[in-house]
């Protein structure tokens, strides 16, 4: 029996690798690299997808350099917006669903302690990256069969990401200083992948997609600071004997951080934590909490070292 063919774009990134690592084995995964399909070559995207004839496309590719995006504006727009519109057009021609990822940076940010962002709240990005991601999610959502999952503060054992970079610095003996006044929803890439695999069968059956927040939060621990994530990773690394037991993460503020390291090129929301109730209702279960991703992330990093 031939398995349904799924095309994963950006398969070499952290979410793309997490999807491959947890693939349920029910599909043939087609995983082109940037050399096979460069998403800045907009005209090549539609023919590539149509020639591949997948049953579903998952786009994990993105231009994620939030500060550099303020200079590389056109490149960022080509990858995060134009390319997604081309993917959506190809999927429409094949009458197949597109699964696409967006970001909490479509929001301008609220005061600390506010209610978590829901899907009903109007986006208003404060940087170019966020503007291009918003354009991309709108292009994808033009077709009701497409699914857009907003994720945020993704950490994993794959590639260079916020978590792996922090742990690498700590293991190299450097002190870690993280802001405790910037709030969001950390999410383990393995949890993103398992959620996507739970959603794919319904999409393949023709059920509608829509817009959902895929965040690793719960009602018990609503929002996390950058310091919370760093301290959680360090604690897991200490438990795995990767770091000395007395290693601590220093808490700082964004203002202190900027005084030391310079003001970032792009504005960022102070509080952009997202509620995941809508997705939990669709799945019929709570999403895993980000803290449940700390140990597997550290174990995965250890296995690579
Ligand atoms: N990471 C986060 O904290 C975060 C937060 C919010 C939203 N998101 C969203 O979540 C999704 C997955 O993110 P991620 O963290 O897995 O990203 P990632 O690790 O940075 O991976 C991005 C992928 O995009 C590919 N790519 C970039 N430019 C390309 C181009 N011109 N042509 C073809 N491929 C290109 C990269 O290819 P190479 O392997 O060749 O570099 C890589 O495989 C993205 O939509 C991202 O915007 C992530």
Automatic annotation (TrEMBL):
Pathway: Carbohydrate biosynthesis; dTDP-L-rhamnose biosynthesis. It comes from the Bacteria. InterPro entries: dTDP_dehydrorham_reduct, NAD(P)-bd_dom_sf, RmlD-like-bd. CDD domains: dTDP_HR_like_SDR_e (cd05254). GO terms for molecular function: dTDP-4-dehydrorhamnose reductase activity. Its EC number is 1.1.1.133. Residues 5-299 form the RmlD-like substrate binding domain. GO terms for biological process: dTDP-rhamnose biosynthetic process; O antigen biosynthetic process. The keyword NADP applies. It catalyses: dTDP-beta-L-rhamnose + NADP(+) = dTDP-4-dehydro-beta-L-rhamnose + NADPH + H(+). Gene3D superfamilies: NAD(P)-binding Rossmann-like Domain, UDP-galactose 4-epimerase, domain 1. Keywords: NADP, Oxidoreductase. Binds 1 Mg(2+) ion per monomer. Pfam families: RmlD_sub_bind (PF04321). Its cofactor is Mg(2+). Catalyzes the reduction of dTDP-6-deoxy-L-lyxo-4-hexulose to yield dTDP-L-rhamnose. Belongs to the dTDP-4-dehydrorhamnose reductase family. PANTHER family: DTDP-4-DEHYDRORHAMNOSE REDUCTASE, METHIONINE ADENOSYLTRANSFERASE 2 SUBUNIT BETA. This is dTDP-4-dehydrorhamnose reductase. It comes from Simiduia agarivorans (strain DSM 21679 / JCM 13881 / BCRC 17597 / SA1).
